[in-house]
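Protein: Flagellar basal-body rod protein FlgG
Species: Devosia psychrophila
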Amino acid sequence: MKALYIASTGMSAQERNVEVISNNIANMRTTGFKRQRAEFEDLLYQQITRAGSSTSDQGTMVPAGLEIGSGVRTVSTPRVMSQGSINATERELDVAVRGEGFFMVQLPDGRTAYTRDGSFERSPEGEIVTSSGYAIDPGIAIPGTASSIAIAPNGMVSAYLNNDSVPTDMGQLQLARFVNKSGLESLGDNLFLETAASGPAQVGIPNADGVGNLLQGYLEMSNVNSVTEIADLIAAQRAYEMNARVISGADEMMQSTSQLR
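Structure follows.
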């Protein structure tokens, strides 16, 4: 019975939906995390009677055809790139992006990755790096004699050296934006990679080129809404149960048919 296979596609799709929701919930406290959602599409249809086909020699036609679908499938899991809440941390190397931009990160293999996680640290050489130790791009090094670090909204990094009363410029933070942010490839470690779908990175200066500005001493939190995720989880669970009931119902119908024989 075809209903068995149709319902099985529904169960598979809702299982994938629950996996996406569980990943969102697991990353509720991940800095700069962007939630995903599962999107579905129906499968091919069997045309039993085509709409508009002729029913008589007098030109009458079928007003609405007869077609049976084949089920559903998960087609994509795009990220929702809305701004997360910004929380104060009082750490001088914590930087939040308020706007469209991504920090650029230099990977060990030479590729450039992108992140919204601005929880930076200093390497043993004084270089500003991510929590995973990847250097930001362009690289900025802070001498060990620096007493404090200041990061302006436009991304200019300066430090007070040797108790100087005037700060010294250390470098310029840049941000990248994309035409299609949802097309970025998730790499893990709060990093994304450019793809053909995202379009090329458009690099700019904070507060000037439409990439947003920076807030020192703050971090952007996850944009996951716990109430919404729980509601979506309950809806997915109910949809899964209903598809399971369809399979049970189809099985009972087949059993009744076999008993008639």
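Remarks: Helices lie at 2-26, 226-260.
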